[in-house]
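Quick review question:
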């Protein structure tokens, strides 16, 4: 009985090592594509991931929360009468919600709250001729092959908070809504919109 257990354990280890060898070969083949100077591997797996860790993160849906360079508070700006379109221009006419430029921020903050530490950081970016390196909070990974377009959603009257949460209660933006395929399909079905694959995927 003990001998059978040992044989089963050895077989499991052999399978694991074999799987690891296959993954490693595929990883090296992928690295050769990303870095042409590297020796080509025996097969090509995918160029969508740069490491085995990124494969696992994508598979399990792990995405670290981005750290913003400026602690922008949505709650305060919206309470003062600003609208989403004031900063995220183009969202009603194109696929992407543009991130505010440093010039746009300083349009108001040349005279408003100039003594605040975060505003001084914004002024510093302008003085150096740099854009604020905002990090996108939402968005689909390249591997999803999603061609999301904001404009038709805005035209259809979809409220921003449907997909982004209630920004009047957020300071620095966080991922408040889990945007996955189920979320999108539920919304499309509720509003009698096509759920054909080609509507969202390419």
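Suggested answer, residue by residue:
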């Amino acid at each position: 009985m003990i001998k059978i257990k040992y044989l089963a354990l050895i077989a499991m280890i052999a399978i694991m090592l074999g799987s690891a060898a296959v993954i490693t070969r595929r990883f090296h083949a992928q690295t050769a594509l990303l870095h042409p100077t590297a020796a080509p591997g025996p097969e090509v797996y995918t160029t969508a991931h740069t490491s085995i860790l990124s494969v696992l993160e994508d598979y399990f849906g792990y995405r670290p929360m981005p750290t913003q360079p400026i602690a922008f508070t949505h709650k305060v700006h919206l309470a003062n009468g600003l609208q989403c379109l004031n900063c995220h221009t183009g969202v009603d006419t194109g696929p992407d919600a543009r991130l505010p430029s440093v010039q746009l921020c300083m349009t108001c903050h040349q005279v408003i709250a100039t003594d605040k530490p975060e505003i001084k950081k914004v002024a510093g970016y302008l003085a150096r001729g740099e854009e604020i390196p905002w990090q996108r909070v939402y968005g689909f990974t390249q591997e999803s092959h999603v061609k999301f377009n904001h404009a038709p959603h805005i035209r259809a009257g979809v409220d921003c908070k449907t997909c982004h949460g209630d920004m009047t209660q957020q300071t620095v933006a966080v991922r408040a809504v889990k945007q996955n395929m189920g979320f999108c399909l539920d919304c499309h079905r509720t509003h009698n919109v096509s759920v054909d694959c080609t509507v969202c995927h390419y």
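Why it works: Residues 74-99+134-200 form one domain. Residues 29-45 have pLDDT under 50 and may be disordered.
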